[in-house]
Amino acid sequence: MINVLNGLLLGRAMFMLPALMLPGLALASSAATTEATRLDLTNSGIGFFAIVIFVFAYALVIGEEFLHLRKSKPVMIAAGLIWGTIGWVYTQNGMPHMAEVAVRHNLLEYAELMLFLLVAMTYINAMEERQVFDALRSWLISRGFGFRKLFWLTGVLAFFISPIADNLTTALLMCAVVMAVGGGNTKFVTLACINIVVAANAGGAFSPFGDITTLMVWQKGLVDFGTFFALFVPSVVNFLVPAAIMHFAVPNEQPEGTDDNAMMYRGAKRIIALFLLTIVTAVSFHNFLGLPPVVGMLTGLGYLQFFGYFLKKTHHRCIAQRCGDEQREAQLGDVVAFDVFNKIARAEWDTLLFFYGVVLCVGGLGFIGYLSMVSEIMYTDWGATNANVAVGVMSAIVDNIPVMFAVLTMEPEMSIGQWLLVTLTAGVGGSLLSIGSAAGVALMGQSQGKYTFFSHFKWTPVIALGYAASIVVHMWWNESYFT
Questions:
Q1: How much is the CA Rg of the chain, to the nearest whole Å?
Q2: In contact, 80 and 50? CB cutoff 8 Å
Q3: Half-sphere exposure (CA, 13 Å, Cβ side) for 299?
Q4: Which residue from 445, 439, 454 is spatially nearest to 195, judged by alpha carbons?
Q5: pLDDT in tens, the chain (483 residues)
Q6: Are the CB atoms for 121 and 348 separated by under 8 Å?
Q7: How high is the pLDDT of residue 415?
Q8: What does the alpha-carbon distance between residue 402 and residue 79 come to, in Å, rounded to a whole number?
Q9: How far apart are CA 28 and CA 461, in angstroms?
Q10: Dihedral sign, CA of 389, 18, 195, 60?
C-alpha cells in the first residue's frame, strides 16, 4: 500500500477519471476555430518523429519490470521532445501561440488529474495507517472465506461500486482487500486483480458517471441519461464470462490464519466516512454545480486535514484517559499522532510524473492530427459496427479518451445503438491489457509485483471472449436501439 499506484502504466489510466471531463469538452468548443489554421503534420518528418519517440518510450514503459527503469523517465523525455518539435514547427510558421495554447490545455488536464489522484492516494494511505485493511483481513479470515469466495466477492463489489465512484478508486480498495487477505499467494492475487480490473471497467460502462467516455457521450447529448443503463446486461456478461473461466484457476484454499487480531486505530471509521463524503462531494460538484470534480476532491482533503487536526489535539488526552487498558491504548495508533501531510508525502510521485509525460505525449499526437485521421478512416471505410469494435481494442493500447474525443468531434451519423456500442467498447476494451485502464495500471503498483503486464496478458484471450460476448449480447438485447 505504501507504494500504491507504483506500477501505473501507459496513458489511458489518467483519462479514466471524471476530473478530466470538462477540459476535454472545452477543447471541443474551440476546435472549430483552430482547425482551419492548425498545421497538418501527419505526413511530415516531424509527425513520424513523434510517433517513433512515443513508441520507443512506450516500449521502455512496458519493459519496466525487466529494465528496472522507472516509467516516468522515458515518457517525460518523450513529452518534451514531441512538444519541442511541435513548438519549433509552429514558431517557424509564425504561429507559436497555437502550440502554447494546446500544451497549456494538456497541462490543465494533468493538474486536475494529479490533484485528484493525490487526494485519493492520501485517503488510501491514511486508511492503511489506521489499520483499516489489516482489520478487514482479520475479519475475512475469521469469517472463513476461501480464495474462491474472495475472488467473487471482490469482483462483484468492484462491479457495483465503480458506477458510483470511479474504476480507479474502486480497484484500489478491492486490491487492498486482496493483498491484505491473500498477499502471500501470488496466483490468487494475480487472478483476483485481473478479475477486479475487468469488473471495475465493466461496471463503469453502463453508468453516465462510471467512466469518462460515458460522461463524454452524455454531455454531448447523443444518448439520454437513462438510456445508458441499457448497457447493464452486456456489462454483466463482460464481467461474468472471464470470471467464470478464471474461477477454476483460483486456488481452492483458505488464507493462512494469523494469531493477530488486528484492530483499527482511533478515527479509522470516521476517515472511511470522510472518504465516502469526499466522493459524494466530488460527484455533486460536477453534477449539480458544473464544477470540475477535482474541486470536490480537494474539499474532501480539507475534511481529512481538519480531522487530522482533531486527532492531534485529542491524542494525549486519550492516552491519559485510556492508560491501563491495553486494548483501548492499542487503538490509539502510533506514539506520534496522526499527520495528514505524512500521507501526502507517501504518495507515489513517480506515478504522478509518469502521468505528466503520458498526458502530454498523447495530447501532442492528437494535436499533430493522428487520432482524428485514424478515426476518420475507420468510420468512412470500415463501417460503424467494425469501427466501434475497433475503438475498444485501440483503447487497450493507446487511450479511450482521445479516441472517443476524435469520434465525437467527427460525430458520424449513427443510431443510438451504435453510440451505446462505442460507449461499451471504449469502456470495457481497456480490460484486454493491464495498461489499458486506470484500474489495471493502478493495481500493477499496488500488488507489489504479483500482478504484471504479462500475467494479465496471459488471460487476454479469456477477457477477449467476454469482450466479444458483451458486444453480441448488446446487439441482441438492445436491438431496438439500432433502428
A1: 23
A2: no
A3: 17
A4: 439
A5: 334 334 433 333 333 333 333 333 333 334 333 444 778 888 888 999 999 998 898 788 777 667 778 778 898 999 999 999 999 999 999 888 898 998 998 888 778 878 877 887 788 778 878 888 778 767 766 777 888 998 999 899 889 888 876 677 678 778 888 887 876 788 999 999 999 999 999 998 887 766 767 767 776 778 877 788 899 999 999 999 999 999 999 988 887 755 557 788 888 899 989 988 998 898 788 778 878 888 988 999 999 989 988 888 887 776 656 544 555 555 555 544 556 666 566 556 776 787 788 778 888 888 898 877 776 787 777 888 998 998 899 888 766 665 676 677 667 778 889 999 999 998 899 899 887 777 787 788 777 778 888 899 999 999 999 999 999 999 999 988 887
A6: yes
A7: 87
A8: 16
A9: 36
A10: positive
**Which cell numbers hold the place of 74?**
522515458
- What would the grid cell of residue 216 be? 463524454
- Per-residue burial over 286-313, b if 16 or more Cβ lie within 10 Å, else e, is beeeeebbbbbbbbbbebbeebbeebee
Specify the residue for cell string 495508533: 333
Which cell numbers in the block locate residue 394?
A: 485501440
Phi and psi torsions of 9, nearest 5°: -110, 140
Residue with cell 493495481: 443
Give yes or no for a contact between 462 and 272, defined as CB atoms under 8 angstroms apart.
Answer: no
Q: Which three three-digit cell numbers place residue 83?
A: 512538444
Where residue 21 falls (left for φ over 0; alpha for ψ -120 to 50; beta otherwise) is: alpha
Estimate to the nearest angstrom the gap between the alpha carbon of 224 and the chain centroid.
24
